[in-house]
Amino acid sequence: MRASFLSLCLLAGILAHAETQPYEFWKSREAAFNDLVFSRTPGTHLPLAPSLEPGAFKLPSYAGGAPSGEGICVLGFLLSADLSGDDRVRPLLPSALRWTSPEGIPSNGIGGKASTSYWYELLPAVLLTQLAMRHPESAEMDANLTRMADRYAVIIRELGGPRADFNQTSYITHGPKKGPVVNGRWTEPDASAAMAYVCYAAWLRHRQPAHLEAARWAMDALERRTVADGNPLYEFSLYCAPALAARMNREQGTRYDVRKLLDWCLGRNDGTKSTRPYWGRIDRDFNGLVTTGLCGYTREGDAYAFAMNSFLAASMIAPLAVEDPSFAPEIGRWLAQLTLNARNFFPDEVTAGKQSGPEHRGTRLAAIPYEGLREKKRLLTTVSETTVGHWLAELPAGAGDFQWRAELKSAEGKTLRLRVLNRADQQIYIGNYRLKAGQTTLGGLLRATQTPLRLEFTIDNAPVSLTKLRVENKPGDGPWLTGDPVFFGWGPKTDLAVYGGAYIGSFTALLAPSKHPSLQVFDLASTNFLGNGDRPHLLFVNTGDKEITHEGLIIPAHGTLLR
C-alpha cells in the first residue's frame, strides 16, 4: 500500500497524549449521556426527552431546544444505546420505524416525508439499516430494510442504472415533482455510497439480484469519478464507501479504488473542485489544543470540527481494516488519535474561557458534547443599515466565507429574497427563503469574494426593515467550543449538541479495555453491521515508544497489530 497524506501525519496528534488511556473516559461518558437521556429528574434544560413511551419518544437536537425528534438525532441515539448494551433502550427500538413512510421513504422527520437534501434522508436510512442488521429477529425492521432497498434500486435505475449520475441535491420518488432535485447551490454525489450500503445490506439478507445490481451501479458511479473530478464528500454518505468497496472487492470480485475513497474521506481537501470545499479530516492542532484527526471543515485558520461527523466517521470507516487488513495500520492510528482528541468536544475538557457556555462545566449537561470546536473564535463584523432593507456588511479584505442571521417580523407564507451586491451594485448572489409559520429569524452561508457587500432584503419586491442583522466573519482567539444556536440566536438555549452526543455509543462500541496505558484496543466488528464472519477484527495500537507484550502478542513501538 503506497504512502498517503493520512498515514504520513497520523503520529503527530497521538504522541502528545501517548500515555493517556481513554477507555475509561469514554465508557463513563457514554453512561452519563445515556443516563441523561433516560432520566426523568428535572433540571436546567432537563429532562431531554419529554416522554419515554415508544410512540412519543423524541429528543431535542440541542439541550434547551424543543424536542423536534430529528431522525439523525433519535435514530443515532437508539443505535448507540443498543450498541452500548443499555437495556433501557429495548422498548424504544420498534419506534425507529416512525421515521419511515409505508412506502419505505426514510426521513429526518417523523412520518417519512421526503427530504430536500439527500443526507437528511440517507443518514436515517443507514441507521435504520444498521438496526435491522443488528436485529434480524424483527420482521418489521427487516421488511422496512427491503422497502428502502427497493426504493433506492428504483432511484439508481432512474438516474441511469449502470451509468447513474448522482450530481443532484435530492430525489423525489412520488407525486408531480418526481425526479432529481437540483437546488442550484450544491449537489451531493456521495449519496451513491449510502444508497449502495442500504442495497448491499438488503442483498446480504435476502439475495435479491436487483439489490446487488443497484449496489454495484451506485458504487460504479464513485469508481468512475476521478480525482480530477473532485472530492464528492458532502456530509457523511461517503463514509459508507471505503469498507463497502473493500467488502465488495472481496465478495463480488470488483476492483474499486479503496485508497481513493479513503483519501476522499480522511485526506487533505484543499477545496479544489470539491463538492464541499474543505470538508474532511483535520490534520493539525488548534492553537495548542490537540485536535488532529477530528472531522469537519478543514480550512486552515478557519477550521470547524464537528462531534457528530467525528463519531460517525469512526464507526463507518473502521470496518475497512477488517475488510482489507492492509489498511489496518493507518486506520488504527487514526482511531487512536480520534479517541484521544475527541474528548475536547466536552465542556469540562476545555477551559471556561474557550467555550460559549462555561456554565455547563461541572453540571449534568457536561455529558453532552458541543456541536463543534472552532479553530478560531468567530466575531461579528460591523453591520450598519444604510436604507430601509439595505444593509452594508463591512467585511475585511479576503474575508472568505461568512454566515448571516437576520431577525424580522413574521411574514409567514411569504418568500424573503436576499440580493448580495458588491461596491459597484453588481449582483453576486440571490437567494429565496420561504418563511414558515411564526418564523422570525433566518440565515445562511455566503462567500465574500468582494468587499464590502450590500445585503438587500425584500418581500414581494418591497424592502424589508430588519430588526437585527448579525454577520459572523472576523476571526478572534481560539480554539472555541461552540455551535450555531447561541451565536445566531435561533431557538435553542445552548450549543450542546444532543444530535452529536447521540453517536457517542456508536463510537465507544469500537473501544476495548487495555491494561497498558500506551495500548489502545479496537473491536472493529462492533460497527461492521454487514457482518465479518471469522475475519480478524481486534486491532491493537501502541501509541508509546516501547514495545508492548499483550496476551502473548508483541506490538512494536508506534505499531499496530490486527488479530
Name the helicity range.
Answer: 25-40%
CATH class of the domain at 381-475: Mainly Beta
Q: From the 3D coordinates, which CATH architecture of the domain at 381-475 would you assign?
A: Sandwich
Distance between the termini: 19 Å
> Going by CATH, what is the homologous superfamily of the domain at 381-475?
Galactose-binding domain-like
Looking at the structure, the CATH topology of the domain at 381-475 is: Jelly Rolls
Helix/strand-derived class? alpha+beta
How many DSSP helices?
16
Weakly predicted, low-confidence segments: 1-20
The 3D shape can be described as globular
User: Rg, please?
Assistant: 23 Å
Largest sheet: 6 strands, antiparallel
Mean pLDDT: 87
Beta-strand percent range: 15-25%
Q: How many strand units?
A: 23
Task: Summarize the structure in words.
The chain has a domain at 381-475: Sandwich (Jelly Rolls), CATH 2.60.120.260. It contains 16 helices and 23 strands. It has helices spanning 5-8, 12-15, 23-38, 71-83, 118-134, 139-158, 191-206, 209-224, 241-252, 258-266, 307-317, 320-323, 328-341, 484-488, 498-501, 504-508, and strands spanning 170-172, 179-181, 279-281, 295-297, 304-306, 372-374, 378-380, 382-387, 390-394, 400-407, 415-421, 427-434, 441-448, 453-459, 462-463, 468-475, 480-482, 511-512, 519-523, 538-542, 548-550, 553-555, 560-562. Strands 8, 9, 11, 12, 14 and 15 form a six-stranded antiparallel sheet that branches. β8 and β9 form a beta hairpin. The radius of gyration is 23 Å and the shape is globular. The model is unreliable at 1-20 (pLDDT under 50).
